[in-house]
Amino acid sequence: MTVQEDLTVSVGEDAVTHEQLAAALERSTEGDKQARVFLRADKAVAYGDLMTVMNLVRMAGYTKIALVGLDAAPGGAAATAVEPSGEAQP
Question: Taking the model in full, what pTM does it have?
Fold first, then answer.
C-alpha cells in the first residue's frame, strides 16, 4: 500500500479512504490477518501522517507491517523492505 504526497492512500492500484482501508486490506489479503503489509510513502509525507495510516492498518488487525523505501543504486533504484526488527529485506 502507498501513501501519496497529498495523503491519498492506495491499496494496490485502488485509492481508498481511511474508512475503506480495513475492507480494502481484507480483500487484498483474502482475510489473512497474518499477511505482511508493505507500506511505502512519498518522501513528502510527514512522519505523523504515516503513523496515522500505520495505526489504521494495525486497528484493522494487521500487525506485520513492513516499511518500503527506494534505495538509490547504480543503474536504477531497488526496493528494500525494512522489517520492524530493523533488518533490511531485498
Answer: 0.76
